TrEMBL record:
Keyword tRNA processing tagged: no
Compartments where located: Periplasm
GO BP terms in the entry: transmembrane transport
Protein name per Swiss-Prot or TrEMBL: C4-dicarboxylate ABC transporter substrate-binding protein
Pfam families with a match to the protein in the record: DctP
Chief location of this protein within or outside the cell: periplasm
Superkingdom, natural source: Bacteria
InterPro entries from the UniProt entry: DctP_fam, TAT_signal, TRAP_DctP_sf
Keyword Signal: yes
Classification lineage: Bacteria, Pseudomonadati, Pseudomonadota, Alphaproteobacteria, Rhodobacterales
Keywords linked to the UniProt accession: Periplasm, Signal
Source organism (scientific name): Donghicola eburneus
Length: 345
């Protein structure tokens, strides 16, 4: 064997032996995904969901997917711009609320109507199903990863409990979204709209008497110290409202991935992820309630018959929403009927 042949064979063997190591290194953090959201880094949503989920993506892809967190709108802009930032590629993944841009994602907003919520887990499954069946076209330029909701809102007030329509008369309440504001107005409350970050000031200086929010929001804003009573629907009744959330990804970011990496994303999104997030929000809700109880605040029950009366008064809001869906070329009655069917199942 000539020296040339021997050197050629050794070079070939060396290349073959080096190939696995090269592939292993190349497979590490091949793709960096920027996840943008509006909550601070210390929020449970980041520590208990985003960070574990990112770690699972990295492990399942053998290190190919690295998710970088950008909380508190660190990439710029305001929360209502998150969906557009995802579509434009300013970020790769965003977590946002459809109600931040009213009427733009009407199917995704449907579950934010009054009395369209059981607990967060069940309602998140309903929302994901509704979006799979009716709403995928709403997020053009984006790959939808999950849709979910929080638990039903409660009335947190500085004064006494709210257990009847009479108790709402003239009560100044901060409303969480447009449809809930319409319902509270119809019930006799004086409704104001401002960002949740301004709610603390409003409660402190008496501009508002209370707010309509789930328990899970209480610890972050120390609402247990600013209010004395929480009024919640009787067990078995639907919640007053919930807000809806979307976790979306830039379509181009997904399309440029290899099929095996795309499969990792697919396997960690969809219905199972929606249910998982909903379940976590139920855990956040339980913790928030424990904070209210520890403070010694009164927790009152809104009787089931009162909730039934309020649902009847909210019917025109649902009818108007059906018409809004119809105006978009959708079957509004079918969408609302399907949502109610799934909630009651």
């Amino acid at each position: 064997m000539t020296n040339f042949t021997r050197r050629s064979m050794m070079a070939t063997m060396g290349a073959a032996l080096a190939t696995p190591a090269l592939l292993s290194r190349a497979n590490a953090a091949e793709i960096t995904l920027r996840l943008h959201h509006f909550l601070p880094a210390v929020a449970p949503m980041q520590s208990k969901f985003f960070e574990p989920w990112a770690a699972e993506l990295k492990e399942a892809s053998n290190g190919a997917i690295d998710v970088q967190m950008f909380p508190s709108m660190q990439l710029g802009g305001k929360p209502p711009q998150l969906a557009d930032q995802t579509r434009q590629g300013i970020c790769d993944i965003a977590w946002t609320l459809p109600v931040y841009t009213p009427d733009r994602f009407p199917v995704a907003e449907t579950m934010a109507l009054p009395f369209m919520v059981k607990n967060a887990e069940k309602t998140s499954v309903v929302m994901q199903t509704l979006m799979d069946e009716f709403g995928e076209g709403e997020y053009s330029g984006m790959k939808t990863l999950a849709f979910h909701t929080h638990d039903g809102g409660k009335l947190h007030t500085r004064g006494g409990p709210v257990t009847s329509t009479a108790d709402l008369q003239g009560l100044k309440l901060r409303a969480p979204n447009q449809a809930t504001g319409e319902m509270l107005t119809a019930l006799g409350a004086e409704v104001v709209f401002f960002p949740v970050t301004e709610m603390v000031v409003g409660l402190s200086n008496g501009v508002i008497d209370g707010c309509c929010l789930p328990y899970e929001v209480v610890p972050a804003f120390k609402l247990q110290e600013l209010t004395s009573t929480t009024s919640q629907p009787a067990a078995g009744s639907r919640g007053l409202y919930c807000n809806t959330f979307s976790l979306v990804m830039n379509q181009r970011s997904y399309d440029k991935m290899s099929p095996d990496v795309q499969k990792v994303i697919d396997d960690h999104s969809g219905m199972a992820l929606s249910q998982r997030i909903g379940k976590q929000f139920d855990e956040f809700e339980a913790f928030g309630k424990s904070v209210v109880e520890k403070q010694g605040n009164e927790i009152a029950e809104i009787p089931a018959e009162t909730i039934a009366e309020w649902q009847e008064l909210a019917a025109p809001i649902h009818d108007a929403w059906v018409q809004k869906l119809n105006d978009r070329g959708l079957d509004g009655a079918a969408i609302l009927a399907r949502a109610n069917e799934l909630l009651d199942a």
